[in-house]
Amino acid sequence: MTTRYRFDRFELVPAESTLYAEGQAVAVGARALQVLDCLVQRAGQLVPKSDLIDAVWPGVVVEDNNLQVQVSALRKVLGPAAIATVAGRGYRFTLPVQGGGASDAGARRLALPAPIGPVWGREDELQALGAARDAPWLTTILGRGGKGKTTLALQVAHAWASHFRDGVAWVSLAELIDPTRLPAAVAQALGLPVGRQDPWDNLLVALQSRHMLLVLDNAEHLVDAVAHLAQAVQRTAPAVRLLVTSQVPLHLDGEREFHLQALPLPADGDALESVAANAAVVLFVREVQELDHSFKLHPGNMADVITVCRRLDGLPLALKLAAARVPLLGLSGTLARLDERFRLLAGGARTGPLERQQALLAALDWSHDLLSPDERAVFRRLSVCCGGFSLEVAQAARGDETQDDWVVIDILGRLVERSLVVREAGDPPRFRLPESVLDHARLKLDMAGERALACRHHAHAVGRLMAQAHEAYWSSADEPWLDRYAPDIDNVRQALDWAEDREPRLAVQLIADAALLLVQLGQSAEGRQRAERLCAAWPADIDPKLAGRFQVELGRLCWGVDGASVCRHARAGLTALRAVGDARGQYLALRCLAGSGVVLGDEARALLDDMGRIEQADWPVRLRLQRLLAKVGVLKAEGLWDQVQDVCRVLGARAQAAGLHGLVAAAHSDLAAAQLALGDPVAALASCRQVLAGSVWDRDPALVHAHALSATACLALGNAAAARTHLQAFARASWQRDWAWFGHYQHLLQRLATLEGRAEVVAQLVRPDDDLDPEAVCALVLGIDGRAAPQVSLVRR
After folding, report:
1. Distance (Å, rounded) from C-alpha 483 to C-alpha 476?
2. What does the alpha-carbon distance between residue 337 and residue 129 come to, in Å, rounded to a whole number?
3. What is the CA radius of gyration of the chain?
4. Whether 655 contacts 632, CB under 8 Å
């Protein structure tokens, strides 16, 4: 694994002896890179000249001016403020640094689906696409449904991944209907928070400094929105490459169109050896052998195999569907059933090859008709799942609530065997319907008149999954928990959309259980918006325990935005939960109340005492650590910073041992705040670097605090350039979260303007008659205007 350090628009990879600027290698001498490596590893700290000389020229006597030459060379590349000189002593690297861990952290952030399987007969296409990796900014793989565009794009994405500093983001658009949701879908794939601010601007700001491949799969029904996104990315994020799969081109200048043809077919009179090497035949035979290892191509069945491949026009999906039936029907039986379906579609006439769309429809209809009634029901009901689905969500396809879960699991396995459902790699596995199959299943669902029933079952299945997620959160480490439940966030949204109008009690339950996931994914704003709608039309039949839990979680969703709302909702939840004797619910309500920043003094101390009386020794570590978090909040409010340091160190150590990286980051952030209050900005910078380097997700809420506290430390040290960089990062992170925590740190922007000597800006910030909102403040001080998305004019051919 390779260690990488990121700062400003640069990335240093010591193992490669390379410095990159926006993904491009920079010409820097070997000695200068060694100096930079030493400085970056101790960013924010004074590095004595002797340490640098010993590291770069070990065992050699050199003059100080040799070191000065290397530092001067670095300043020409990084900017004069990047390396500060401490007269007579040494140098200090001033830019905020992220990284220092292995590069697989970036890969964790951008989860790329595993390849679906071997790509038979596409060697030439893979080679041609590989040659285009560094050429155009946009490549579109074109072809009708069933040709294998997604399979090919996945193979290409995996082959290209190592060539992009920030990896590959995969965005499946097959189930996205509303084009306005496109930027949110891309942000989610990038691991970014999705707030209610302008989603286009939010996304483009996040992409500006990235060097990555962005794959948009199945774009044909959103072609205008995808074209708008592509053009915007081209103008604002030049180091981002796009790979799109679609049935129609985007018609943009500079777009490279790659037309994917059906697999080549055997020619008349080909010998067995030639037929056996044909791509369509290889695919068909290999798919049959997956289910029947004894199947072989031989002179006796060669003619039938060729006929099947020709009848299905070399379409990979159609060939897979047909191959899945050979073990049951035999080759001749499969061909006979296909012929029946072809005659039906062609009106009984045999007038030549079917159009490819008819061939795929024939294969889909024929494969569907061979399913049992129960298999057909599960197949069509799975079409309501969104963004793929887990086994738990697949239970939405049950015939009724009393049906055994194993019935659906067994049927799901049979649908996978018949290539109607794709099983994706992972443990536990996830599933999805291929694009053309999904459209077919939706059509069958509407024809059966079961959409309302299927949506209801889906919402209840997601509700059960979120109840499981909420319970598992308290006894799970961060990353496994997110890996397990984050992929179903689109199913959560769909279930909430359905339940809000039809079963409000289920919607309340979903919010109460899914709030933790929404917070972890940086989507608290969406959760608040949905919860507030439910409050405005509160269902009458909510039991007190659920109502109390809902209030506590709504308080959690208000965290960092409105302390008074956190306090109000936590009090309401505490009252309801005390009435029903829910110990754990009371404990969590007390934690929110104590940490709201509104309750102070003796009352706050009493809340901590109540938590201590309620806490149980057999509770999971994460749950019991909530009292330490609450205690930190109370101590901070009282200004007892020495005690804050002590509690933070205990909290961080216990959280680290349990794999609770989010709590580790929270502990480091609060420790930095204490160190600043105690007059040690250098130590505070070091604590903040622990947060920035250890963050696995760009949507990690700790990033907001880490950048703000780093800016505070830099201001204390008189380093305006580094403070500005951190405040820009803070403003963008806060903006992405609907200005969460901005009010707590807004004074830092005035301090920056003062340090920079911008008296006119300071005067505008302190005038009492001004009502500047966060966007206006950022525009005034930092030159960041969150209100105006970059203007994009589409240049269509």
Report:
1. 11
2. 38
3. 30
4. no
187: pLDDT strictly greater than 50: yes
Distance CA 232, CA 191 (A): 20
- The stretch 695-706 carries a mean pLDDT of 70
What pairing do the DSSP bridges indicate for beta strands 10-13 and 18-21? Answer: antiparallel
Closest C-alpha among 374, 373, 415, 400 to residue 454: 400
What's the CA gap between 210 and 237, in Å, rounded? 7
Q: Cis peptide leading into 80, omega within 30 of 0? A: no
Q: With 0-12 CB in 10 A as exposed, 13-18 as middle and 19+ as buried, what is 743? A: middle
Angstrom CA distances, 192 to 226, 480, 671, stand at: 19, 18, 26
Q: Could you please report the per-residue DSSP string of 399-453?
A: SSTTS-HHHHHHHHHHHHHTTSSEEESSSS-EEE--HHHHHHHHHHHHHTT-HHH
CATH 3.40.50.970 fits 104-259, yes or no: no
Does 3-102 carry CATH code 3.40.640.10? no
Find, among 334, 223, 329, 314, the residue nearest to 262 by Cα.
314
Distance (Å, whole) CA 639 – CA 333 = 81
Q: Which of 143-157, 186-200, 401-415, 672-686 holds the top average pLDDT? A: 672-686
- Phi then psi for residue 84, to 5 deg, are -90, 140
Per DSSP, 172 falls in state E
Residues 6+ apart with CB under 8 A from 373: none
On the question of pLDDT at 355 being above 70, the answer is no
| Helix (H/G/I), strand (E/B), else coil: 313 | coil
Structure tokens at 605: 């101390």
Is it the case that residue 51 has pLDDT exceeding 80?
A: no
Nearest Cα neighbor of 325 from 363, 356, 299 is 363
Report the alpha-carbon distance of residue 262 to residue 120 in Å, rounded: 12
Tell me whether strands 138-142 and 255-259 are parallel, antiparallel or unpaired.
parallel
Band of pLDDT at residue 740, cut at 50, 70 and 90: confident
Contact 5, 100 (CB under 8 A): yes
Higher pLDDT pick, 387 / 469: 469
Three-state DSSP at 793 gives coil
What predicted TM-score, i.e. pTM, was given to this entire model?
Answer: 0.69
- Burial class (CB within 10 angstroms; exposed 0-12, middle 13-18, buried 19+) of 688: buried
Residue 370 pLDDT greater than 70, yes or no: yes
SS3 48: strand
Name 350's bridge partners. none
Task: Report how far apart, in Å, the C-alpha atoms of 308 and of each of 272, 285, 299, 316, 346 are.
Answer: 16, 11, 15, 12, 17
- Of the CA atoms within 13 Å of residue 131, those in its CB half-sphere come to 6
Six-digit token pair at 575?
């009252």
Greater model confidence, 395 or 61: 395
pLDDT of residue 552: 95
Domains of the chain, by residue range, sit at 3-102, 104-259, 272-369, 667-797
Q: What is the pLDDT of residue 399?
A: 65
DSSP structure class, residue 648: H
pLDDT in the model for residue 786: 40
- Joined tokens for residue 758: 């911008």
Q: Token pair for residue 777?
A: 């403040």
In this structure, the strands spanning 3-7 and 138-142 are unpaired
Q: Residue for token digits 């989603």?
A: 199
